[in-house]
Design brief:
Elements lengths: L6 E2 L12 E2 L3 E2 L4 E2 L4 E2 L4 E2 L4 E2 L4 E2 L3 E3 L4 E2 L4 E2 L25 E3 L4 E2 L4 E2 L4 E2 L4 E2 L4 E2 L7 E4 L4 E5 L5
Parallel strand pairs: 1-3, 2-5, 3-6, 4-7, 5-8, 6-9, 7-10, 9-12, 10-13, 11-14, 12-15, 13-16, 14-17, 16-18
Antiparallel strand pairs: 18-19
């Protein structure tokens, strides 16, 4: 389902629009979105990105232009999630602290990666498949593992 409040640039490609869940987000021109992707309100995906299938982009995630997001990538925006308060009452939208996540231009995120709240992934950085990103990743850096750790500079592999 693509909600009416989604802002899309020109030539966004969603081959199976019935298999996505997009609402209250912005999608840049030329971006490609695979099936079974959810992009929540107040998320932004820049132009010419590739968002692969089964990816979850939650509220307050900003993905700049020319970013590759592999299959089954999950972004997290709450460092301390809870369903209820100390008295057992369900928590609502205003009862938690959302921390923004930012993915800078040209970064690549491998399949199965989890990006935790408050993290910035630098320009042209590469995240190895299956990694858990718990802290900022500098530009032009390759990281991998759980937690994701420095592997090499991007220039060492190109």
């Amino acid at each position: 389902m693509i909600a009416k409040d989604v802002e899309m640039g020109a030539n966004v490609l969603i081959p199976r629009p019935e298999l996505v869940n997009l609402y209250g987000c912005r999608i840049g021109a030329g971006t490609r979105i695979g099936p079974f992707v959810e992009i929540q309100k107040n998320a932004v995906v820049g132009r010419n990105c590739k968002i692969s299938s089964h990816t979850f982009i939650c509220e307050n995630v900003i993905i700049e232009k020319e970013v590759f997001v592999g299959h089954n990538v999950t972004f997290v925006n709450d460092r301390w999630p809870r369903a209820c308060d100390a008295q057992g009452q369900p928590l609502g939208d205003g009862d938690w602290t959302m921390e923004p996540v930012r993915v800078r231009r040209g970064a690549s995120i491998g399949s199965g990666v989890v990006v935790l709240a408050g993290v910035t992934i630098g320009e042209n950085a590469m995240i190895g498949a299956g990694s858990v990103v718990t802290k900022d990743v500098p530009e032009n850096t390759v990281v991998a593992g759980n937690p994701a750790r420095f592997v090499r500079q991007v220039s060492d592999i190109e």
